Amino acid sequence: MSTRKLEEKNIRKLTKIGKKSMGLTLPIEMVRDLGWRERQRLTVKRIKGGLVVRDWRKR
User: Fold this and answer.
1) Rounded distance between C-alpha atoms, residue 14 and residue 19, angstroms
2) Integer distance in angstroms from the first to the last C-alpha of the chain?
3) Model-level pTM?
4) How far apart, in whole angstroms, are the C-alpha atoms of residue 15 and residue 35?
5) How far apart are CA 46 and CA 3, in angstroms?
6) 19-26 contacts: CB < 8 A, separation 24 or more?
7) What is the pLDDT tens value at each position of the chain, 59 positions in all?
8) Beta pairing class for 21-24 and 42-47
9) Is 9 in contact with 3 (CB distance < 8 Å)?
10) What is the DSSP string of 2-59?
11) Counting Cβ atoms within 10 Å, is residue 51 exposed (0-12), middle (13-18) or buried (19+)?
12) Under a CB-based contact definition with an 8 Å cutoff, are residues 45 and 51 in contact?
């Protein structure tokens, strides 16, 4: 497997999961920097021009 160029490192593709869902892989460096773990709950919020993904916090 070849290494991606620096400018292409954050280019990702959506992957179909089942019939109604899509998945997106994240760079492992970003996940580690955020301290996220496998199976962790996250919130997804739609904003103008994109999405915001944050750690889920119980209120």
Assistant:
1) 14
2) 44
3) 0.68
4) 24
5) 32
6) none
7) 566 676 677 888 999 999 999 999 998 889 999 999 999 999 999 999 999 999 998 77
8) unpaired
9) no
10) PPPPGGGTT---EEEETTTEEEE---HHHHHHHT--TT--EEEEEETTEEEEEE----
11) exposed
12) yes
pLDDT at 8: 74
Distance CA(45)–CA(33), nearest Å, equals: 21
Q: What is the pLDDT of residue 1?
A: 58
Q: Token pair of 35, please?
A: 């301290």
Locate tokens 């496998």: which residue?
A: 38
- How is residue 25 written in tokens? 């892989």
Torsion angles phi and psi, residue 43, rounded to 5: -105, 145
**Contact (CB, 8 A) for 51 and 36:** no
